[in-house]
Amino acid sequence: MDDGRSERGKKALAHMQRLCARREYCRYDLDFKLKRYELESQEREEILNSLVVDGFVDDSRYTRAFVRDKTTLNGWGPVKVRMALRQKRIDDSIIDGYLEEIPGEKTRSKLASLLRSKAGIVKEDEARVAVKAKLIRFALSRGFDYGMVIGVVDDIMKDIFKPDKN
Protein backbone atom coordinates (compact mmCIF):
# COMPACT_ATOMS: atom_id res chain seq x y z
CA MET A 1 0.00 0.00 0.00
CA ASP A 2 1.41 3.40 -1.02
CA ASP A 3 0.74 6.13 1.52
CA GLY A 4 1.88 8.90 -0.82
CA ARG A 5 5.08 9.66 1.10
CA SER A 6 8.42 10.09 -0.60
CA GLU A 7 11.23 7.66 0.18
CA ARG A 8 12.80 10.38 2.30
CA GLY A 9 9.48 10.88 4.09
CA LYS A 10 9.18 7.17 4.85
CA LYS A 11 12.71 7.11 6.28
CA ALA A 12 11.98 10.23 8.32
CA LEU A 13 8.78 8.71 9.75
CA ALA A 14 10.54 5.48 10.70
CA HIS A 15 13.37 7.43 12.34
CA MET A 16 10.95 9.62 14.31
CA GLN A 17 9.03 6.55 15.48
CA ARG A 18 12.27 4.98 16.75
CA LEU A 19 13.19 8.19 18.58
CA CYS A 20 9.75 8.47 20.17
CA ALA A 21 9.84 4.84 21.28
CA ARG A 22 12.90 5.64 23.43
CA ARG A 23 11.79 8.89 25.11
CA GLU A 24 9.19 11.63 25.07
CA TYR A 25 9.31 14.36 22.43
CA CYS A 26 6.98 17.24 21.70
CA ARG A 27 5.77 18.20 18.23
CA TYR A 28 8.10 21.20 18.13
CA ASP A 29 11.22 19.09 18.78
CA LEU A 30 10.26 16.54 16.16
CA ASP A 31 9.44 19.21 13.59
CA PHE A 32 12.92 20.63 14.16
CA LYS A 33 14.44 17.16 13.61
CA LEU A 34 12.33 16.60 10.50
CA LYS A 35 13.70 19.76 8.89
CA ARG A 36 17.01 17.93 8.41
CA TYR A 37 15.28 15.63 5.94
CA GLU A 38 14.53 18.62 3.69
CA LEU A 39 10.89 17.62 3.29
CA GLU A 40 8.13 19.94 2.13
CA SER A 41 6.27 21.54 5.03
CA GLN A 42 3.09 19.66 4.10
CA GLU A 43 4.86 16.29 4.27
CA ARG A 44 6.47 17.22 7.60
CA GLU A 45 3.04 18.14 8.94
CA GLU A 46 1.58 14.83 7.72
CA ILE A 47 4.37 12.92 9.45
CA LEU A 48 3.81 14.84 12.69
CA ASN A 49 0.06 14.22 12.52
CA SER A 50 0.71 10.52 11.91
CA LEU A 51 2.97 10.39 14.98
CA VAL A 52 0.26 12.05 17.08
CA VAL A 53 -2.52 9.77 15.82
CA ASP A 54 -0.40 6.67 16.39
CA GLY A 55 0.38 7.80 19.96
CA PHE A 56 4.09 8.37 19.46
CA VAL A 57 3.78 12.08 20.29
CA ASP A 58 1.59 13.69 22.92
CA ASP A 59 2.42 17.22 24.07
CA SER A 60 0.49 16.69 27.28
CA ARG A 61 2.44 13.53 28.13
CA TYR A 62 5.68 15.30 27.20
CA THR A 63 4.80 18.26 29.44
CA ARG A 64 4.07 16.00 32.41
CA ALA A 65 7.46 14.29 32.05
CA PHE A 66 9.28 17.59 31.44
CA VAL A 67 7.77 19.27 34.51
CA ARG A 68 8.52 16.27 36.71
CA ASP A 69 12.11 15.93 35.51
CA LYS A 70 13.04 19.59 35.58
CA THR A 71 11.53 20.31 38.99
CA THR A 72 12.68 17.12 40.68
CA LEU A 73 16.00 16.30 39.05
CA ASN A 74 17.25 19.69 37.86
CA GLY A 75 15.85 21.85 40.66
CA TRP A 76 14.11 24.25 38.29
CA GLY A 77 11.40 26.55 39.53
CA PRO A 78 8.02 27.01 37.85
CA VAL A 79 9.03 30.20 36.00
CA LYS A 80 11.97 28.53 34.25
CA VAL A 81 9.92 25.43 33.45
CA ARG A 82 7.13 27.56 31.95
CA MET A 83 9.55 29.53 29.76
CA ALA A 84 11.28 26.38 28.50
CA LEU A 85 7.94 24.81 27.57
CA ARG A 86 6.75 27.98 25.87
CA GLN A 87 9.90 27.90 23.73
CA LYS A 88 8.78 24.44 22.63
CA ARG A 89 5.39 25.90 21.66
CA ILE A 90 3.46 23.98 24.33
CA ASP A 91 0.03 25.50 24.98
CA ASP A 92 -0.27 27.50 28.23
CA SER A 93 -3.34 25.52 29.30
CA ILE A 94 -1.29 22.30 29.25
CA ILE A 95 1.60 23.94 31.11
CA ASP A 96 -0.71 25.42 33.75
CA GLY A 97 -2.35 22.06 34.39
CA TYR A 98 0.91 20.32 35.24
CA LEU A 99 2.50 23.20 37.14
CA GLU A 100 -0.60 23.41 39.34
CA GLU A 101 -0.09 19.77 40.32
CA ILE A 102 3.12 20.71 42.13
CA PRO A 103 2.18 21.79 45.65
CA GLY A 104 3.49 25.23 46.62
CA GLU A 105 5.02 23.78 49.76
CA LYS A 106 7.02 21.26 47.72
CA THR A 107 8.33 24.09 45.53
CA ARG A 108 9.20 26.15 48.60
CA SER A 109 10.93 23.16 50.20
CA LYS A 110 12.99 22.52 47.05
CA LEU A 111 13.97 26.20 46.90
CA ALA A 112 14.98 26.22 50.58
CA SER A 113 17.10 23.11 50.06
CA LEU A 114 18.86 24.62 47.04
CA LEU A 115 19.51 27.91 48.83
CA ARG A 116 20.77 26.28 52.02
CA SER A 117 23.21 24.31 49.91
CA LYS A 118 24.29 27.46 48.09
CA ALA A 119 24.59 29.38 51.36
CA GLY A 120 26.93 26.69 52.66
CA ILE A 121 29.59 27.72 50.16
CA VAL A 122 29.33 31.44 50.91
CA LYS A 123 32.54 32.93 52.26
CA GLU A 124 32.35 33.76 55.94
CA ASP A 125 33.69 37.27 55.50
CA GLU A 126 31.16 38.28 52.84
CA ALA A 127 28.85 41.10 53.75
CA ARG A 128 25.26 40.27 54.59
CA VAL A 129 23.96 42.26 51.61
CA ALA A 130 26.31 40.46 49.20
CA VAL A 131 25.24 37.06 50.48
CA LYS A 132 21.57 37.95 50.20
CA ALA A 133 22.03 39.26 46.65
CA LYS A 134 23.89 36.09 45.63
CA LEU A 135 21.15 33.86 46.99
CA ILE A 136 18.41 35.90 45.32
CA ARG A 137 20.18 35.88 41.94
CA PHE A 138 20.79 32.16 42.19
CA ALA A 139 17.15 31.39 43.02
CA LEU A 140 15.80 33.64 40.28
CA SER A 141 18.17 32.05 37.75
CA ARG A 142 16.68 28.69 38.71
CA GLY A 143 13.21 30.01 37.86
CA PHE A 144 11.57 30.53 41.21
CA ASP A 145 9.00 33.24 41.86
CA TYR A 146 10.44 36.44 43.34
CA GLY A 147 7.95 36.58 46.21
CA MET A 148 8.78 33.06 47.31
CA VAL A 149 12.52 33.69 46.86
CA ILE A 150 12.52 36.72 49.14
CA GLY A 151 10.67 34.86 51.89
CA VAL A 152 12.98 31.84 51.80
CA VAL A 153 16.14 33.96 51.52
CA ASP A 154 15.07 36.04 54.52
CA ASP A 155 14.58 32.85 56.57
CA ILE A 156 18.01 31.55 55.56
CA MET A 157 19.66 34.90 56.27
CA LYS A 158 18.30 34.77 59.82
CA ASP A 159 19.96 31.38 60.25
CA ILE A 160 23.30 32.46 58.73
CA PHE A 161 23.60 35.82 60.47
CA LYS A 162 22.27 35.13 63.93
CA PRO A 163 22.52 38.16 66.21
CA ASP A 164 25.29 37.99 68.77
CA LYS A 165 24.11 37.33 72.30
CA ASN A 166 26.63 39.39 74.25
Q: What does this entry look like structurally?
A:
The chain is an all-alpha fold. 69% of the residues lie in helices and 0% in strands. Helix 2 crosses helix 3 and helix 8 runs antiparallel to helix 9 (146-160). The longest helix has 16 residues, at 7-22. The chain starts with 6 loop residues before the first helix and ends in a 6-residue tail after the last helix.
Helix content: 55-70%
- Mean of residue pLDDT values: 89
Regions with little confidence, pLDDT below 50 for 5+ residues? none
Give the termini distance in whole angstroms. Answer: 88 Å
Output the radius of gyration: 22 Å
Structural class by helix and strand composition: mainly alpha
Number of strands: 0
* Succession of helices and strands: HHHHHHHHH
> What does the largest sheet look like?
none
- Quickly count the helices: 9
- How much strand content do the residues show? under 5%
Principal-axes geometry comes out as elongated
Notable characteristics:
166 residues
Question: Could you give a short description of this structure?
Answer:
By secondary structure, this protein is mostly helical.
